[in-house]
Amino acid sequence: MDKFKQHLKGDLFGAITASIIAFPQALAFGVASGLGACAGLFGAIILSLFTGIFGSNIPIVSGPTGPSAIIVATIVLSLNGDFKSIVFVLLLASIFQIIISLTSIPRFIKYVPYPVISGFLTGIGLIIIILQIPSLLGGDMFASTFQALKHYPQLFLNIDKASLTIGLSTLLILFFMPKIITKFLPSQLIALVLMTIIASFLNLDIEKISSVSFLIPNLYIPNFSFELISASFTLALTLAFISSSETLLTGIIIESLLKKKYSPNNIVLFQGLGNIFCALTGSMNGAGATMRSVAAIKNGSNTKLTPIFSAIILLIVLLKFNNFISQIPICVLSAILIKIGYDILDLKVLKVLKYAPKDDLFVLLTVLFLTVFYNLVSALGVGIVLACLLYSKRLADNTNIKNKNMINPYTVDEIETEKESHYKIRILHIDGQFFFGSISQIVSHFDELLETKFVILTYSSNSLLDMSAIFALDDIIVRLNAQKIKLFLVLENIDVYNQIKALDNVILDKNCIFKDENDAILLAKDEMNKE
Description:
Blueprint: H1 2-33, H2 37-54, E1 62-63, H3 66-78, H4 83-101, H5 114-136, H6 145-157, H7 161-176, H8 179-182, H9 187-201, H10 226-258, H11 264-280, E2 287-288, H12 290-298, H13 305-320, H14 322-325, H15 330-344, H16 358-373, H17 376-397, H18 412-420, E3 425-430, H19 439-444, E4 454-459, H20 467-482, E5 486-491, H21 494-501, E6 513-514, H22 517-530
Helix pairs in contact: 1-2, 1-3, 1-12, 1-13, 1-15, 2-11, 2-13, 3-10, 4-10, 4-11, 5-6, 5-15, 5-16, 5-17, 7-9, 7-15, 10-11, 10-12, 16-17
């Protein structure tokens, strides 16, 4: 009973935190999608409520997200705002998502190479920023990055000073709010409330979301035609794939934080079913939201009561504060989206770019360019194919025919070291290549090393670490640090050793990197004796 009360309290506090984050984001994504602020909020409410009631017992808080907002906006503009046709395409995307859940696709998301994910996310972030700058300056929204960039010169000659002032002030709050404050309230909510009050007090003549009707949504009968299916097939499939991918990536992070197993197919299935209800009510389709889910977990969430509580809280806020919501300036929402776009940018990759293989850089830039200027699904597909082809070439280039005796890779000295230390020192080998295809299997070995104080990890391959491996190594170090375990890395190949050394403390302290395993063993024994 005490454990139940503890979980209930944690789920409630986590839901409050997730709702505080979801409120300004759902409003902003709804406006950005072209469906309206109300559609964004009800998308968050319906999807979280449905997946909470019927889905897996993990605190995955769902709702509109950046990538889904971009694709829904493209759907809205391609159909010229024909609402019943839009409902049909959103419904079709939800059906595709259910079909995806019945295949083996959800189990393979973990194998997507890091450069592909990095290029895609950075591309999404850039799209959001490029498309929201016009609204920040008091101008009109555009359907694509090409159109927006084409109108930038004219836009900067006709800036609305009031919108720019409020928008820039919002950005200053979002970027520079002291962390001591954001521990209790997210900067997005503070900026939204404060700048709305200021704009209302000064009675500024700027565009607001006052035209939106905040009523309980009705059920809509969508238009149906084979011509519409043919015209919107790619867009619907794109939305289904992106929503599924976001949900699965969120699920992987939740699994890592809570050490709870879940069925990837199951969470995609119920996200798809929840999105059907979103579509039929004219609300915005969405996915499992990483930021909201992680914030909830850090505040105690542990079960699927969290998304249920979050949906109820958002519904109460929507119905009780609709007069305030209608006065929110569009430029404030644009500023929030620009900050979200900036947060989506994978800036951490910059610190390892010059050390990464050129193949990885080529894949990343290709995916980034295609995402921003062409098509999201094409960007992912081309990126994955390129990564696989270039890796195959790398394997072929490094293949030599030679005889080698099959011996036990773990020596007598290694076994004795582990026994003498009562397994406080563990010696592990990475056999084979450490690349994107082997990341999940390797990293999973570091989730639980009971009683261990030092891990000596030996990598003997001649292949340089690609970007996926570099960030997987970062993940391994974080997991070991969480268990208060120190890692010593042994790199027998001089090129690999120099590559990691050149990272200059980005990944691992130089004193913890060795060429010879015996040196690492001696240092581990010495530090263990000191303890």
